[in-house]
Design goal:
Blueprint: H1 14-28, E1 33-38, E2 48-55, E3 63-68, H2 83-96, E4 104-108, E5 118-122, H3 141-144, H4 147-167, H5 184-199, H6 207-218, E6 227-230, E7 239-242, E8 245-249, E9 256-259, H7 261-280, H8 292-303, H9 310-334, H10 351-359
Antiparallel strand pairs: 1-2, 2-3, 3-5, 4-5, 6-9, 7-8
Helix pairs in contact: 4-8, 5-9, 6-9, 6-10, 7-9, 9-10
Length: about 375
């Protein structure tokens, strides 16, 4: 692909956004001002994040973060942005577990004030493993840490997953069940098929993604296991760390109801994605960090649940990531930042690893 160095993440005017946010806050706290607006810690192409200070003597907190649904006119990455659902998940996680989540302050479902629904939450202090350049590259705090410090972060992160899955009452997560028929895993995969169909509507399809869906059926678990609250975007890049301990778990827009392994597969694979990219550019990366065998072993120690069918779940994670990447690639085409190649599978950055997973050759033989 001929691409710009980095795809655009917003089409909104930041000054106009701050002006409208100030007016909205003033209706709730007369005289409130927005100050200290900072460049977002992460401004993805799904929802947008604005960091700001709330200036008012009666403000519940001073350091805030705004999560705003994607601009519906900006070739959004996902078809639906249910901010009320995300707000509800965060509130329930805080209520039922000791997993650190930011305190949610206000929810606005009316798109009128800012052009899309949003919520405001308390901003957590700390540091996040970077995506660009990824933490597997040299020159960032996690790569520069000692092996002992990274092991501490890994263990604490797996503790977050274990406590989320064990502490959150499964019945409270059933509202996240995908529509359709069958068990929660079947519904989850069917929802991803529908998402893929939406992504390729009117554009070239991906033979590799479709082969991966076929391989999933061949690997389908005999017993998917009990369903729990799945964080959804379970990766270290969505955690704010205080030192090497999780201080805030972010980005719950992909939360769902399904097997524990949905999160474990995503955690393992998203690290492998960055690791494979780093190795491909001639750096060693962090080969001993978040290894699949270590993740499975430690999670079993923490929960008593031995992860099952992880070849299926890591393939599923890589497949889901590929569909998102394909949508982002077509978004770049939409904005004139890229051209559609003759082979659409080349738009999937982790094509080689996904092909290996489909063949069953990615993971070493046990």
């Amino acid at each position: 692909m001929a691409t710009a160095p980095r795809p655009r993440t917003t089409t909104r005017d930041p000054e106009e956004l701050v002006r409208r946010l100030t007016a909205w806050l003033g209706a709730r706290l007369p005289g409130a001002r927005v100050g200290g607006v900072a460049a977002p810690a992460s401004n993805g192409m799904s929802s947008e994040t604005l960091l700001f200070d709330l200036v008012h003597p009666s403000a519940p907190v001073s350091a805030c973060a705004l999560r705003l649904a994607a601009d519906p006119a900006a070739y959004s990455v996902f078809p639906v942005y249910d901010m009320a659902r995300q707000h509800r998940v965060m509130r329930l996680v805080a209520e039922h577990t000791d997993v650190p989540v930011p305190r949610v302050l206000w929810l606005e479902e009316d798109p009128g004030p800012l052009g899309a629904p949003f919520f405001v939450m308390e901003r957590a202090a700390g540091r996040v493993p970077p995506d660009v350049m990824p933490y597997t590259y040299e020159g960032n705090w996690l790569h520069s840490a000692t092996d002992t410090e990274r092991a501490r972060l890994q263990d604490a992160t797996l503790g977050v997953l274990a406590r989320l899955h064990d502490q959150f009452p499964a019945k409270e997560a059933r509202f996240l069940t995908e529509p359709g028929t069958g068990d929660p895993l079947r519904r989850h995969v069917d929802a991803q098929r529908a998402y893929y169909a939406w992504v390729v509507d009117g554009v070239a399809r991906s033979p590799l993604i479709e082969a991966a869906f076929g391989r999933l059926e061949e690997l389908w678990p005999e017993d998917p296991g009990p369903a729990v609250l799945s964080w959804g975007d379970a990766r270290i890049g969505n955690i704010v760390y205080d030192g090497f301990e999780p201080a805030a778990v972010l980005d719950w827009e992909m939360a769902s109801y399904g097997p524990r392994e949905l999160d474990l597969g995503w955690t393992v694979y998203l690290h492998r994605f960055f690791q494979d990219v780093t190795v491909g550019f001639g750096q060693p990366g962090l080969p001993d960090f978040l290894r699949r065998d270590a993740v499975e072993r430690r999670y079993a120690e923490l929960t008593g649940h031995t992860p099952r069918d992880m070849e299926f779940h890591t393939l599923y994670a890589a497949l889901r990531h590929a569909v998102v990447m394909l949508r982002i690639a077509y978004r770049q085409v939409h904005f004139g930042e890229a051209r559609v190649p003759e082979d659409p599978d080349t738009m999937i950055l982790h094509r080689a690893s996904l092909e290996a997973m489909v063949r069953g050759t990615y993971w070493p033989a046990p």
